[in-house]
Amino acid sequence: MAKPNLRLPFLKKYRDRHGKLRIYHRPTGTPLPGKIGSPEFMAAYHAAQGLDTTTAIAPTLTVVKPTPRLRTTEEGTIDWLVDKYYASDQWKRLSPETQAGRRRMLERFRADHGDKGYATMQAIHIRALMEEVPGGPHPKRNWLKHLSGMFLYAEEVGLRVDNPCRGFKRPTPPKTDGFHTWTDGEIAQYRAFWRYGTVPRLVMELALETSARRGDTTRLGPEQMKSGRFEFMHNKNGVDVSFPISDELQQAIEAMPKSNYDTFLHTKAGNPRSAKALGNDFRGWCDKAKLPKHCGMHGLRKGCLRILAEAGCNILELQSRSGHRTLSELQKYIDKADKRFAADRADEKVKAHKQKQAAQSKFGKKIAA
User: Fold this and answer.
1) Which of 138, 211, 269, 339 is most buried, by CB atoms within 10 Å?
2) So where are the chain's domains?
3) Domain 184-337 CATH class label
4) What pTM was computed for the model?
């Protein structure tokens, strides 16, 4: 009888796009048929483990840790191309966050289509497969972007003459304001609840004052502080930034207990916090401070740029903090800046210009006389 609650190591489980549960032996990538604990499942499982399946099919057998075996794939298949892509320089140049998201998508893709040839994949096939991706335009767009990355690699190294993901328009998500930009009131409310000397306060000041993305925030530490400045690289696009440490951030850092760890944010064991865990923790800290649900960590990055824009910083000055390469990337981050500040500055410039013109005209008349 099948025992669905049987706990066995080295299993990888997920549901495919049709909702069907698929189970693989993680070290070898072997698909395991039937229900967990059934004779056919246990036979396949023990075979993948390298055990004698004629005598070792009982679910109660003590599990022996196998010697990991390399996944073997047939050359010319999508399975083979995925493995080549993972080992490529193009893959290694991706940020860890991008790699994680792309790997999740490619593993699902290869589970359904790994035995198919990659050379015969055409745009018409990509379009049909994209339509099966559940959700709205956002997941479809991300699916296409990740798959295109792999086929771009194949094109660059001569495994294909083209990229089948190129040539048709990507799904366009509805226009939104994106992540909420923190207001001055929300920042003050958070600061009033979380005092200096607490991890929640340190996290907020790091994200707000550095405009770092969540993954970059987890990597910040004393090593990035040099001569009163913060100097680090935005991991997403490789842009280096350097700027003075604000009084608020300096106080938040100094208020924390001293440690010898490499990062400001770490687990009890001293390891850097993961970006995902930090995001979940921050959501809870905002809830305790009774802030709206739309207040998230990425909104602090936008809040930083809003504050800089309202203070009159120009595009180059904004980019020196945010790491954006282009104005189009930066624009959506400063759309929420109060335009009245810019209007006031423009009015002062016009007044000064008129005064200068009047003075020059008056001086010219004196010379003429």
Assistant:
1) 211
2) 1-72, 78-156, 184-337
3) mainly alpha
4) 0.61
Buried b (16+ CB within 10 A) or exposed e, 231-251: ebebbeeeeebeeebeebbee
Per-residue pLDDT tens listing for the chain (369 residues): 444 456 777 787 767 656 677 787 777 777 888 888 788 888 888 887 775 444 444 444 444 444 444 455 788 999 999 999 999 999 999 888 889 899 999 999 999 999 999 999 999 999 999 988 888 888 899 999 999 999 999 999 999 999 999 877 777 767 777 889 999 999 999 999 999 999 999 999 999 999 999 999 999 999 999 999 999 998 888 889 999 999 999 999 999 998 888 899 988 888 888 888 999 999 999 999 999 999 999 999 999 999 999 999 999 999 989 998 888 888 878 887 777 877 778 778 888 887 887 777 766 666 655
- Give yes or no for a contact between 234 and 212, defined as CB atoms under 8 angstroms apart: yes
